[in-house]
Specification:
Elements (H helix, E strand, L loop, with lengths): L1 H38 L1 E5 L4 E6 L2 E5 L14 H12 L10 E3 L2 E6 L4 E3 L11 E6 L2 E6 L4 E3 L5 E3 L17 E3 L10 E3 L5 H12 L9 E7 L8 E8 L11 E10 L2 E11 L10 E8 L8 E8 L2 E9 L6 E10 L1
Antiparallel strand pairs: 1-2, 2-3, 4-5, 4-11, 5-6, 7-8, 7-11, 9-10, 12-13, 13-14, 14-15, 15-16, 17-18, 18-19, 19-20
The protein binds calcium ion (2 copies).
One calcium ion binds next to loops.
């Protein structure tokens, strides 16, 4: 028995030595790498509290306070802020400010109109992309043109950090290869005091669904054009987790805008299940409120999920007669 104990003891010591050896040689190397990736080389400038994170070949910039900079009625702030932005968003920008999702390109604004991405993209590879997602300011890089989302084969680019855009079922944003400030005006979430639940209840009732106290999933105060009058974006939703249709499921995204002193409601997406055998349920989210055309006015990115797919659409508020109009989009799913 003693002999066995001695042998086992010997084996244990040998294993311990081997373990220590590995920890000190290869192991410590790996540990250093991991620490660098996780801990990140972080620099903070106190000017506008910008955090720069370097991971491999991609650079991510995060400004925690970036969503609220505009005071109502302040019309001179745009020029000021775009000056600040050009400092913080150095990069290799595409010839056209192409807007992409992780699984395909949406298109771009060419200076006079929107171009839906079809077969040829204005990229060579290695371009920088700002992430246009709520509560996030970051820059990543994109590859050259390729086909994504088999078997749909959307034309697009692979982003180094596409996970920053979001994930199914949303909210899901977009990325844009443009240097300008994406949020030149106010974009902030706030809590409902019952006003928007009541309004959502009325809108659902108009469509034949009686929900006395609907769920408010997202509520944002934004000033799309920076005129000092805020618009309100509301997502009301109650759906089953897997997005299989159940009677009474609803999801709706709408915007309140004051036009000539009156509140106008524009619905950007809606789905209600009255009959699960025929009705499809979609889950809407506001993925981002960002200027994607470079005119200083913000567009609304709406993401739409269904049980096996996800899409994004860019709505531009054209004018008070036309309202918000879907300009470019991309989707992936079967
Ligand atoms: Ca406004
Ligand atoms: Ca715009």
């Amino acid at each position: 028995v003693n002999r066995t104990i001695w042998i086992l003891g010997g084996v244990f010591v040998v294993l311990l030595v081997v373990l220590i050896f590995f920890l000190n040689s290869d192991g410590s190397g790996d540990l250093t790498t991991t620490t660098l990736l996780a801990g990140e080389s972080t620099t903070t400038s106190d000017a506008d509290s910008t955090t720069t994170t370097t991971t491999g070949d991609a650079t991510t910039t995060t400004s925690p306070g970036e969503t609220t900079t505009t005071t109502p009625g302040d019309t001179t702030s745009t020029a000021q802020e775009s000056t600040t932005t050009s400092e913080t968003t150095d990069g290799e920008w595409a010839d056209e400010a192409i807007v992409v999702a992780g699984w395909g390109a949406l298109g771009w604004f060419d200076g006079s109109s929107w171009v839906q991405a079809e077969d040829s993209l204005p990229v060579v590879g290695g371009e920088s992309y700002q992430i246009a997602a709520l509560d996030l300011s970051a820059v990543t890089t994109g590859g050259s043109q390729e086909l994504l989302c088999e078997p749909l084969d959307n034309v697009g680019v692979q982003l180094a950090h596409e996970e920053l855009l979001g994930e199914w079922p949303g909210p899901y944003g977009v990325a844009i290869s443009a240097p300008w400030s994406l949020t030149p005006h106010i974009v902030e979430a706030f809590s409902d005091d019952g006003t928007y639940a009541d309004l959502a209840s009325d809108l659902l009732a108009e469509r034949g669904l009686d929900v006395p106290n609907p769920v408010i999933k997202q509520l944002l105060r934004v000033d799309l054009e920076g005129d000092g009058v805020n618009e309100i974006l509301v997502v009301t939703e109650d759906v089953s987790p897997g997005l299989t249709p159940v009677v009474g499921d609803y999801s709706m995204v709408f915007m309140n805008k004051v036009i000539e002193g009156e509140v106008q409601v524009a619905v950007l997406g809606e789905a209600i299940v009255f009959d699960p055998d025929f009705d499809f349920i979609l889950s809407f989210s506001v993925g981002s409120v960002s200027d994607l055309s470079g005119d200083g006015k913000m567009e609304v990115v709406v993401s739409t999920a269904y049980y096996e797919g996800l899409g994004v659409e860019v709505f531009e508020y054209v004018n008070d007669d036309i309202g918000p109009l879907s300009q470019i989009s991309a989707g992936c799913g079967s």
